[in-house]
Structures are given as structure tokens and as C-alpha cells.
Amino acid sequence: MHSNGTTPVKHAAEAFERKAPVGSELPTLISPAYENQPLLEAFGELRADIEALVTRFGGVLLRGFQVPSVDAFQQFAAAFGHPLLSYEFASTPRSAVSSGIYTSTEYPAHQHIPLHNEQAYTREWPMKIWFHCVTASPEGGETPIADSRAIYRRMPAEIRERFEPGILYVRNYGDFDMPWQQVFNTEERSEVEAFCRRAGIRCEWKPDGDLRTTQLCQSMETHPVTGERVWFNQGHLFHVSNLQPEVRESLEELLDPEDMPRNVFFADGSPIDDAIFDEIRGVLDAETVIFPWQAGDVLMLDNMLVAHARTPFKGPRKVVVAMAEGHGNLANTTF
After folding, report:
1. Using one digit for the tens of pLDDT, what is the confidence trace for 36-68?
2. Going from the N-terminus, what domains does the chain have, and what CATH number goes with each?
3. What's the domain of life for this entry (predicted)?
């Protein structure tokens, strides 16, 4: 209860504009106790509810609160008690805004970023992720989300069985992927090698000085708190079928499969047919929840329970991101 006798208002997801599969309750909407209530002021009253709702539904949307600056957003994310994480072993370009706060993926505005759980292409990932909409695009630019538990349940059993041993990610850094210096935040080969040893990544320096890494990672995981199984990988982003057809064709004329900028294989190293990822993308599409951003929105997700994406947009758009509560599975990383 606030000093003015009001309490924060929580709504079911159906209370605001969104498109979602039948039965979805993502995201739960939380509104302020009074107009333009500062989000930081509301934190003490809201924290327990937010944490319970994120654990149950996977995500909450805090809308209508006053978030006057990126610093205020940073303080809100940090207030949950875990140090904000840096963005290591990057797969996409981002820029640091301030300590622990990053721009959302800096892909061109016309490109769609498919659903994914943050850093699911590694064996270490954040459990919590926050998005803050500073500027909402006038057209597009939504951050679609999807329940990873529902994706797992909807995924054909034969695909789950084939993916159960994990999947193998192969990256070749350089001209077509991000430079290894940017990915590992260092110019020193020895530091790259030390990171890879710790993370269970096989690294290889090629004659031209570029780097190749290979890592066997999970395709599905069990949530450490809820005990539920989730679909948890980025195979559909790394597989060559994610490339534009003309780009893929030109690269395949030049490179062997293991030399493609990014590719993914079954755990035994055998190729994965395009048709399998067609099915996987169909499941992801069927579970997608989409809603328009409003300036000031804060979306908090359990990164294992909920995947996120980005739609193309026009005009100005600024969404910043924070991550916390590192978790992982570094056991059985040899292959």
C-alpha cells in the first residue's frame, strides 16, 4: 500500500493491444498506482509481485511509469540484487550505453531479428533480461516474445529427439562474421584461448590469422527454478538457411560448410537439413506474441522461459537492454 492509499494495478495480458496464440498470458501488464508514478519509487511495492509473475508467466510489461532516464532504468534493473552483466562472446553488434546497459542489436532497420533466447548459443547465459523503450518507432520495431515452454511442447517429438544430444555451433570470424577482437573484447590471442578453455569452446587459428570456434551446446534445457523443459538454442539463427538465398548461394560457391561465417550441425557433426529448420521456424511463428512499444515501457523477461525478437522498423527507435544473474552448464563440454 502506498502512502496515498493506492496500490499498484496488475492486469492480465489481454488488457492491452497484442497478438498472441490462444491461451498465452504473455506478458503480464503492471500499471502504476497513480499517473506517472516513478518506477523506482514503485519498486519496493512491486518487487515481490514482479518476481513471482516473471517466474510464473515468463515476463511482465511495466507501462505508464515514469522512467526519466537510462540511468533510472539501470537502477531499476540493478535493484533486483544481481550485478548487471557485460556482453561477452557476442553474436551481434551492440554498443555500451553505460555500465551494464547496451543498445539492442544494431542490425539495419529493415532486417528482422528472429526469436531467440539471449546467448543460448553458449553454455553461459543471463537468467534475467530487461528492455527499456526510450523512443518507440512510428512504424514497426516491436520486440516480439514467445514462451519457450510452449515452443518445447509444440515442437515435433522427432525434432526434440534428434536435437536432444545438443547442437554444434561453428563460427569463422573475419570478413563475413564479426571480427574476433570485437567478439572477445581483446586484441590478445592468449586471452581468447583462455576464454575458450574455460567455456568449453574449441578454437583454431587459421593460416590467414582469422579464428574458427566450435562449441557443443544445449538445444533444450531444464529451468533451474521451475523444473520445466524449454526450447533453448539459436540453431535457426546460425544455420546457413538463415542467410538470404543470394548471399548463401554466393558464399557456398566460395566456402566449404565448415568455413561458412556461421553454421550449426547435429552433435555428431552431421549436417541439419533446411526442412528441419523450416519446421522449427513454423513453431516459433505459431507461439509469437507481439505488441507495440510505448515510450517509457520496461519489459522484464526470464531469459530461459521467454524468447525475444525484433521486427523491421522505420524512423527513430531506441531500445536499451540490461542482463543479470548469470547461469550456465559447463559440464560435459568436450566433444
Report:
1. 999 999 999 999 999 999 999 999 999 999 999
2. 9-149+288-328 (3.60.130.10), 152-282 (3.60.130.10)
3. Bacteria
